[in-house]
């Protein structure tokens, strides 16, 4: 399963094997071997693949059918705004969020819900 999912997501993200190999730190031949089931990625490479393809190791391994790592994307969005603490669980942090940031977060959540309904 991991082999098919790596290949499918790589193509969906419009990465060549060389592009994915560069992001993971392996050769294009290694990526080719993974996709053809000749070899399997080790745990360290699996984590790098998941990060590069914006997914989770659970999805790649077939333990989940959720392709997107939505919480990581939300965390990255908040970090670009300067929020490094886990805002969702920090009531005081919410008081510091500007209205335009709340609107952007709300729009992002709406986008995620639309994507889920499209699938």
TrEMBL record:
Residues 6-60 form the HTH cro/C1-type domain. One of its GO terms (molecular function) is DNA binding. PANTHER family: HTH-TYPE TRANSCRIPTIONAL REGULATOR XRE, TRACRIPTIONAL REGULATORY PROTEIN-RELATED-RELATED. Keywords: DNA-binding. It comes from Halobacillus faecis. This is HTH cro/C1-type domain-containing protein.
């Amino acid at each position: 399963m991991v082999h098919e999912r790596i290949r499918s997501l790589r193509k969906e993200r419009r990465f060549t094997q060389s592009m994915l190999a560069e992001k993971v730190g392996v050769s294009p031949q290694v990526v080719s071997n993974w996709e053809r089931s000749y070899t399997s990625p080790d745990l360290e490479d699996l984590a790098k693949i998941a990060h590069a393809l914006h997914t989770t190791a659970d999805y790649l391994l077939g333990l989940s059918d959720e392709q997107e790592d939505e919480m990581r994307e939300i965390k990255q969005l908040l970090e670009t705004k300067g929020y490094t603490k886990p805002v969702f669980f920090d009531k005081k942090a919410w008081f510091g969020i500007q209205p335009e940031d709340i609107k952007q977060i709300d729009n992002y959540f709406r986008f995620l819900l639309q994507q889920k309904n499209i699938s």
